[in-house]
Amino acid sequence: MNENKEKLEHLRHSAAHLLAAAIIELWPGSKQTIGPAIENGFYEDMDLGDVKISEADLPKIEEKMREIVKGWKKFERMEVSKEEAIKAFPNNEYKHELINEFADQGKTLTIYKSGDYIDLCRGGHDMDPSEDLKHFKLLKIAGAYWRGNEKNKMLTRIYGAAFFTQEELDNYLKMLEEAEKRDHKKIGRELDLFIFVDSAAGMPYWLPKGLIIYNELLNFSREVHKKFGYQEVMTPIINKKELFETSGHWFHYRDDMFISPMSYLRSDSKDPYEGTEVFGIKPMNCPNAMNIFDSKTRSYRDLPMRLSETTALHRFELSGTLNGLFRAREFHQDDSHTFLAVSQVEEEFKKIMEMIEIFYSSFNLSYKLRFGTRPENFMGEASDWDIAEKSLEGVLKESGKEYFKVEGEGAFYGPKVDILMKDSLGREWQTGTIQLDFQQPKNFKLKYTDSNGKETQPVVLHKAIYGSLERFLGILIENYIGKLPLWLSPVQVVILPIADRHIDFAKKLTNELSTANIRTEIDITSERLQAKIRNFTLQKVPFMGIIGDQEVENSSVAIRSREGEDLGKMKLNDLINFLKDKIDKKI
Predict the structure, then answer these.
(1) Distance between CA 259 and CA 311 in Å, rounded?
(2) Is 134 helix (H, G, I), strand (E, B) or coil?
(3) Catalytic, out of 45, 126, 209, 286
(4) Residue 161, SS3?
(5) 139-143: average pLDDT
(6) Res. 582: pLDDT tops 70
(7) Which is the catalytic residue, given 119, 132, 335, 418?
(8) DSSP type of residue 152
(9) Domain final position from 427, 446, 479
(10) Which residues are 153's β-sheet partners?
């Protein structure tokens, strides 16, 4: 961590202490739990007992924080015994749990004192809080289970932002205000794209318009993959645990999987549930792809063998971490697994780089790449890693694309390249990833016969360019504020007859546009024209075709964009060509 970043993290950690101190002064008997620094700010989880607070209380809490911090000249560190630590936090079962845990692990217990406030803490604070800790803002209140476990008590979590200067804080608050306008969950409801319901928490219901966008993304992915020689497959969503044990995922992902013990009936047994098998809903497609490769004898002539799959994946994310399409329990990846020889890695990775550029240029999105190299706990032979890393980095350099290397940040089974895209607010997202895997082919004992007749283990390139389609779509919705490009828009043009006498011609026009595979709606309600225009502008429909007396007489339509631009009158064929050109060019 560089020095400035570390100082900022210490400032934000100190702000969390300050927040807890203010809460305890305002509502005596409150219990502090944990309060870390996070990106752009901090939070504190508090047990407020029977007290209920709302965001209307945040200004009062801020005022108390500003009053308290004037007396905070430093953070005083004290090493204490387990008994002293427990005594310092009477009636606080949360601190007692942490103290006992740390003591059992042989960790040194430290308490930090600032003003009259003390907290159990490992350290990392601002050196002069009364001078530095001035530019902060409390943002929102949420619920959070103690230690993220749904079986534990629900606490009150208060989020805040903190910076060294008021200008930095103001800029961040402006960005948050803009981001709120773009919230994909809000826009998704307003545009009837998707909903979430309690009975399927974290799993989106796709509504007709939303499914059109989803399918357009998927169809585009299929077109590109077909062009590059991928064959699409579909594999079971539910598998026996033994599959995940072989792949190694059972030991790494078991706690994040949906798992069910299944009993089966035996008619000849006194015990109707004599046998039990454990099944898991797949959190990734990799093990299934290994089974496909292993289903028959393979030779070097079969390589590279490119398989693509976009079936539903499920991961048991904690309820407190769910965030619309960004973090869901059910999602779909544009997943692929390419089986190949180590000598083919470089050429195949070049093709993947071409695919990445095709995908991201189609959305006018800028991106950079993060290259993770061999970690300390790597699997396989170091010599294979050396070849793989050299091959991947050689292609990255040759591509001219921006990338940076992070030593030791590869997966345990192979080096990886992550796609980091930037949206119109300057926010950076990790979307896709490419991973070179030596380990799973070894776990599944995969073999192919090389040109010398020798059995050889393949390697696998895992690839997802969108990453999660759900997350990618959420990013697009926020990036475009719902004004998706024409080719993705669920309704591409709406026809608006001004009066009843214009309806027949408007219907004819609507039918002909629909026949040309342009997604078209017609509004024949009695609403005034300006009300219709306002409504479909809010619905983010790219183009509106207005039909009046002149348009009927001349067999034309007056075209208006959702931005309010008058594009003049067009004949039907001209309108179709105009729209088709934009759709084909993905603009």
Answers:
(1) 18
(2) coil
(3) 286
(4) strand
(5) 93
(6) yes
(7) 335
(8) S
(9) 479
(10) none
Q: What range defines the domain where residue 415 resides?
A: 195-237+282-479
Q: Is residue 242 part of a domain?
A: no
CA neighbor of 145 nearest in space, from 39, 34, 255:
34
Active site (annotated) includes residue 337: yes
Q: Where are the beta strands (DSSP E) in 164-316?
A: 194-195, 205-206, 231-232, 238-240, 258-264, 275-281, 305-309, 312-314
Closest of 339, 329, 587 to residue 471, by C-alpha: 329
Annotated active-site residue in 64, 157, 315, 562: 315
> Based on the domain organization, do 258 and 349 belong to the same domain?
no
The DSSP output letter for 116 is T
Q: Is residue 484 part of a domain?
A: no
The two tokens of residue 514 are 């629909």
% of the chain residues with pLDDT over 90 = 77
Of 416, 463, 519, 560, the catalytic one is 416
Residue 573 lies in a domain: yes
Are residues 226 and 375 located together in one domain of the fold?
Answer: yes
Asked whether residue 574 is domain-assigned, the answer is yes
SS3 322: coil
User: Cα separations (Å) of 182 from 177, 232, 420, 476, 483?
Assistant: 9, 34, 20, 10, 10
Q: Fill in the DSSP letter of residue 276.
A: E
Residue 374 sits in the same domain as residue 457: yes
One domain for residues 389 and 527: no
Residues 287 and 273 placed together within one structural domain of the fold: no
- Residue 550 is which amino acid? Q
* CATH number for the domain harbouring residue 327: 3.30.930.10
CATH of the domain at 514: 3.40.50.800
Residue 315 known to be catalytic: yes
Active-site option among 17, 64, 337, 519: 337
Does the annotation count 462 as an active-site position?
A: yes
Confidence of residue 270 (pLDDT cuts 50, 70, 90): low
Instruction: Tell me if residue 286 is catalytic.
Output: yes
- Residue corresponding to tokens 């530095």: 132
- Residue 219, φ and ψ in degrees, nearest 5: -65, -40
pTM: predicted TM-score of the whole model, two decimal places: 0.82
Spell out where 189-304 has E strands. 194-195, 205-206, 231-232, 238-240, 258-264, 275-281
Q: Would you tell me how many other CB atoms lie within 10 Å of the CB of residue 566? A: 10
Phi and psi (nearest 5°) for 158? -115, 125
Q: What is the distance between the alpha carbons of residues 357 and 510, in angstroms, rounded to a whole number?
A: 36
Is 222 among the catalytic positions?
no
**Is 121 a residue of the active site?**
no
pLDDT (0 to 100) of residue 248? 79
- For residues 309 and 412, membership in a common domain is answered with yes
Write out the two tokens for 55: 């965001």
* Residue in the structure block whose two tokens are 């289970």: 145
